[in-house]
Design brief:
Length: 424
């Protein structure tokens, strides 16, 4: 068990220091893996005093022999012998594998950071880390208009399964990046829930989890095709809530119904209750993808956080082989997301995308938002174009976006954004 925490601590340091990922820099505490060096016969030692002890001997060896079960590399300044089943080679194997699918979260170090436990109530546990960052260039003299969403994210967490007969899983995720208007501890716990799958085609979730307000607003950041979410998603949604949720999934329909506290970021104990529901119809669900995938959806988020709020929306999306297109509309009479507001707002976006290769996708978007329907002259339009390069699926992705912001009551602006995403 001590090795679990050592590995987890090393990954924490890597993220905190700002390095997204570099295979050459992965370190393991040397006393965990160091063993006696045994050399094949007739192996020549390099004539270098690598450890500066004045003697050229086995300790100076830094080679990979012709036999597969001998590996040498340098960790924390000292040569270390590694066997074929060692941690280093597991990491090497994980990083060498090709990933062409982009419809799931492939964690690059899953095989290394997953343990099957022999005793206790937990059957399996996986530690993981996420990094998502960006470099943005805004070509306008005024300040950056978009203050509702910060792309930078450093997450560490664990997920796993209890004993098989319980049919129950769990997840705990911590967000380590500071956020405006929210204290570090209020933002620290992002996911903390258990999921039971005893009912066929259903999941019952209890705890703090992402709130399904709209499609893109309730989507994990991992799958958002642009660096920034659409305006309705980052204004009305992209939050977590504490409560109970039922998720159903059938071939022709899926749905999610939740009753939550209207609190956000653990600011208040129970300021009020809310209901969040979303239903998708899948007319082509029984055709095995022969004609593509069509989704028609709609939903409602309504409750009271000292004052009433209601957000409703509709969605249509179609995917066929390498082509995708979707559109989503949302209207609010008050909303409860990162900020609470009683404003009457509405917005719409449409996205189109095409995969040129399994690793390269081009995307475009038209995005319109009215922050207050009771006022005129403040319509906001954003025109975006981007390229996604899936180095290893969603586990390692690079995003390049150009955004033209056409706001009626502000100076127009141009943005060039380079984003990165790593799932470890």
């Amino acid at each position: 068990m001590n090795s679990f925490f050592r590995i987890f601590f090393v990954i924490t340091l890597v993220f905190a220091s700002g390095y997204a990922f570099a295979a050459e820099n992965i370190s393991v505490e040397k006393n965990v893996v160091e063993q006696e060096i045994k050399l094949p016969e007739n192996t020549e030692l390099p004539q270098r005093d690598l450890n500066n002890d004045g003697v050229i001997d086995n300790k100076d060896l830094l080679i990979d022999t012709s036999e597969e079960n001998f590996y040498m590399f340098k960790i924390l300044g000292d040569p270390v012998y590694r066997s074929e089943g060692s941690l280093f080679n597991k990491i090497k194997t994980s990083l060498k594998g090709e990933v062409t699918r982009t419809d799931y979260s492939n964690y690059l170090l899953k095989d290394v950071l997953t343990w099957d436990l022999d005793k206790g109530p937990v059957d399996r546990i996986q530690f993981y880390g996420k990094y998502r960052g960006n470099m943005s260039f805004n070509f306008v003299e005024d300040e950056d208009y978009d203050t509702y969403y910060d792309i930078t994210s450093i997450d560490l967490g664990m997920m796993g399964k209890f004993v098989p007969e319980s049919k129950t899983e769990f997840k705990l995720q911590f967000k380590l990046t500071p956020t405006k208007d929210v204290s570090f501890f209020q933002n620290l716990i992002s996911d903390a829930y258990i999921v039971n799958e005893s009912i066929p085609h259903h999941e019952v979730m209890i705890g703090n989890s992402r709130n399904q307000v709209g499609v893109e607003g309730g989507m994990s950041t991992t799958y958002v095709p642009f660096v920034l979410r659409s305006q309705i998603a980052r204004t009305f949604a992209n939050t977590r809530a504490f409560g109970a949720r039922v998720i159903g999934n059938y071939s022709l329909a899926d749905y999610s119904f939740a009753v939550n506290s209207s609190d956000r970021f653990f600011k208040e104990f129970f300021p009020g209750a809310e209901f969040t529901g979303w239903v998708n119809l899948k007319p082509l669900g029984k055709t095995d993808g022969k004609y593509g995938k069509l989704v028609l959806g709609g939903g409602l988020n309504a409750g009271k956080r000292h004052e009433n709020y209601t957000v409703s929306g509709a969605y249509i999306g179609y995917n066929y082989k390498n082509f995708m297109i979707n559109a989503e509309y949302s209207i609010a009479d008050g909303y409860n997301a990162r900020f609470f507001s009683t404003d009457k707002a509405e917005g719409f976006y449409t996205t189109i995308g095409y995969k040129l290769t399994p690793k390269i996708q081009i995307v475009g978007r038209f995005d319109q938002f009215d922050p207050n329907r009771d006022m005129s002259g403040d319509l906001r339009r954003e025109y975006s174009a981007g390229i996604n390069y899936f180095v290893k699926g969603q586990g390692m992705r690079i995003l390049l976006n150009y955004v033209f912001c056409d706001y009626q009551n502000m100076e127009n602006s141009h943005r060039l954004i380079l984003g990165t995403q790593f799932l470890l």
